[in-house]
Amino acid sequence: MNVLVCVTKTPDTTAKIGFVEQNTRFDISGVQFIMNPYDEWYALVRALELKEAQGGKVTLISVGGADCDQVIRKGLAIGADEAVRIDVQPVDAYQVATEIATYVKANTFDIVFTGKESIESNGSEVGAMIAEILDWPFLSYASKMDMEGPTATVDLEIEGGEDTVQADVPFVISAAKGLAEQRIPNMRGIMMAKSKPLQVVPGSGVAPRTAISSYTMPKEKSAVHLVDPENMSELVRLLKEEAKVI
Amino acid sequence: MVLVFAESGDGRIKKSGQEAITFGKKLATQAGTTCTTLLLGPIDAPGDAGIYGADLVVHLPHDGFTHFDSQTWSRAICEVATARNAEYVVLSHSSRGKALTGRVAIRLQAGCVSGVTELPNLSSGCLVTKGVYSGKAFASLKIATAIKVLSVMGNAIQPTKDGTAVPVEVMDLEPGKAGVTFVKTDKVEGTVPLPEAERVVSAGRGMKGPENWGIIEDLAAELGATTACSRPVADSDWRPHHEHVGQTGIAIRPNLYIAIGISGAIQHLAGVNRSKVIVVINKDPEAPFFKAADYGVVGDLFEVVPRLTKAIQDMKAAG
Ligand SMILES: Cc1cc2nc3c(=O)[nH]c(=O)nc-3n(C[C@H](O)[C@H](O)[C@H](O)COP(=O)(O)OP(=O)(O)OC[C@H]3O[C@@H](n4cnc5c(N)ncnc54)[C@H](O)[C@@H]3O)c2cc1C
Q1: Does the model's ipTM exceed the 0.90 cut?
Q2: What's the DSSP call for residue B245?
């Protein structure tokens, strides 16, 4: 199996979110960046398991500047064989997907993995777009995947349950919780990652179709209304008469 | 024209589909145009899409649309959109919607924004708002293309129900060969799925162990709520994974979220802080969750929760 895993960097889950330049840019000062959890914990690890079971190669791909290299090296330390960075600062998912699909067309892959979404833009768009550009099936929000020959049997998260479906390679699959167990890179992996190939290639020059014009923060909550723990009928009254939610 | 793809299941338009139709109708009114709703597969009363705001329904009843496949479904949506010159295509930001939105945008050479939380501002171009950083902020995006594809976040809009049934145009379109083969669906029976639930009762590590969940289930049953949990609770297999809410679980925005024995870590809040009303029950007055709460109860959950259930029963009995 020749597998491509799409990875992106996101602010750490505990990062304080703030904006600069009249709320048009994310404030990176003091922010730690990590590999998007769905890419790292589930997509990459399931890809590595496939390789361990049936041979092949795992390639990482990321669309971004040199500031992504640290995240890419971590993926190599976890076990990917090699990596490609498309040297473009992407503005939207369309750009990312187009660059990745262009790379896939010029090479040969059986499976393209993405995370189910990035915890930064929460779009779930890139995987679907790559699949459409390549005209491949798309297995979205996969929480379990078994391969037999060229055929994958996959559980997909749906509202209140899961669908089980099958598809033959090549396909695009987006990884949700359950698809694999997180792996922590060990010392040997970290040392080896330094000498694994990380190829930087220029982008195709495709233009974005959407752009962020500004950010806003959610409205601050007013102070909590504390209710006496002995008096739950008062809480019920508030929920019914004041909040009107029951 | 605004084309809404409304999801259906068990022969009816799903709640997420109703929301998408109402959103599409309001968008159409703003844009000075009409709202056509597209329905795929067998459905009992397609004209009922008018109740939620559709001006016209296009129905592709072919059996081949019984099971979901992002490839054939997006082709069908785009064929209808192109044939009828849709300027906007609206979908739901649901599990299916997430598999379709990006595909539809590529096929129509359209810019797309998914997880839209409010109606676009059309005063200069098309400015669309969505949640980013897992609910910690909102972004306004400009879509630069002639055709625009939007997916609507669950519970972002209340479906209006004051319309009447509208005419249905049936089209005999075959889906073609699907990219994926359907095997089976497993659903948790009896409860409203978390992303669609209007009330959620959620519990965390303060519960001490899975054997104590009876009081949570009783409260949820009394409220007609769906149960959820924090991540460590799912990770320890105290509760099923599909109940895990938060940044790395399901993001929800019910009208009422009751958090019991949950500390309110930033990753947990990210998935729930857009709930309309948040009630926190925790014995630690310093628990961070109280800062995100509308109503708080400082006390031992093993005493407070049964008391709350009883108070709801009393309220119901009193009418
Ligand atoms: C990358 C990353 C992603 C994460 N994603 C998520 C996510 O998606 N969702 C999520 O939930 N977490 C997530 N976490 C974990 C998160 O940081 C917290 O560890 C977790 O939410 C804590 O769960 P908890 O509140 O149930 O447990 P605890 O933090 O242990 O809190 C238990 C609470 O119960 C209270 N309590 C105890 N006994 C009683 C009693 N008798 N009566 C009343 N109250 C009582 C305590 O005061 C305490 O506040 C993530 C962490 C990381 C690093």
Answers
A1: yes
A2: B
